[in-house]
Amino acid sequence: MGAYILRRLLLIVPTLLGIMVLNFALTQFVPGGPIEQVIAQLEGQADTFAGISGGAGDAGNQTFETENYVGSRGLPPEFIAKLEKEFGFDKPPLERFLSMMWNYIRFDFGESYFRSISVMDLVLEKMPVSITLGLWSTVIAYLVSIPLGIRKAVKDGSAFDTWTSGLIIIAYAIPGFLFAILLLVLFAGGSYFQIFPLRGLTSDNFDQLNPLQKALDYLWHIALPVIASTISAFATLTLLTKNSFLDEIKKQYVVTAKAKGLSEHKVLYGHIFRNAMLIVIAGFPAVFIGVFFGGSLIIETIFSLDGLGRLGFEAAVARDYPVIFGTLFFFGLIGLVVGILSDMMYVFIDPRIDFDSRET
């Protein structure tokens, strides 16, 4: 296992480098870079940077003199040259890429072009919201899907299996954002009930509440977003669990165990469970990362949650390259490490698996 993990760790370097090279190359051909974004903002208003990213009008704590700016005559070339130098666009693309990667290797992700904050601090500021959604959604999905999937496998072909399959298919077919809107309309004061808050992660008086009230307030706010982000993962995991158990139930060792007179409960949970749950439990890290990233933008936007999904979207719109590439590198690295952790989970659950004997 040690040799396999070492090989996987070494593969992280070329894989991550390839991701960064591809995305950096693509941005060189995308019109409307950060310089153009600043110019468009300035030419659309007579003041300086008041309209950039909600009033954050500096790039890396740098300010620009604009006394010579006259809207009808455009921006002076000297100002454009100074802007390019401040953003680093006065250097060739290859030099910019190598400098960026050298900084990223040292986990120096620089500062946002349009916010007076480092990329790492910005990510850490937004991460709790996305972790909350991802973790709660994954835990709830597993707590519901595993017992339901086992029950469906045991009752395969019964009326219970048929009508629950219908509900699962409907749940899987409904887009997460549409389900989120439905929840808002029904339970957040849209047209029917005012049970849950419309937006935010906590109430305005959160700091004044005692610990128990804070916990209840937090759960009250997070209920609808978590339900909306759980629905697709719930359907997938339930069917995966059912199919895994069905595959194991048909194997010879199960028939032998039943022939020895073992009870159905002992056969199910003493013999089938570990083998059938291998793929489900080992995939927990990957499922969490999938829920963590997938669909977070729309859910966070609908429920006015300031998380990583909205951060990535706003950075892409504003062409805030330090935020885009910094988060791409950071979460790309996390995704690759999670892949290794998933393989380690397989070995932890079933020690008979030996990755060192696999052909690479």
CATH top level class name of the largest domain: Mainly Alpha
What radius of gyration results from the CA coordinates? 26 Å
Quote the average pLDDT.
77
- What fraction of residues sit in β-strands? under 5%
Shape: globular
What CATH architecture of the largest domain do you see? Orthogonal Bundle
Structural class: mainly alpha
Number of domains in the coordinates? 2
Task: Tell me what the structure shows.
- The chain is an all-alpha fold and about 350 residues long.
- It folds into 2 domains: about 35-120, no CATH class; about 120-320, MetI-like fold, CATH 1.10.3720.10.
- It has 15 helices and no strands.
- The chain has helices spanning about 1-25, 35-45, 75-85, 95-105, 120-155, 160-175, 175-185, 210-250, 250-260, 265-275, 280, 285-295, 295-300, 310-320, 320-350.
- Helix 5 (about 120-155) packs across helix 12 and helix 7 (about 175-185) packs across helix 8 (about 210-250).
- It is globular, with a radius of gyration of 26 Å.
- The two termini are about 15 Å apart.
- Residues about 45-75 have low confidence and may be disordered.
What's the short story on this structure?
With 360 residues, the protein is an all-alpha fold. The protein has helices at 2-27, 34-43, 77-87, 93-105, 119-154, 159-173, 176-187, 211-249, 252-259, 264-276, 278-282, 284-293, 296-302, 308-318, 321-349.
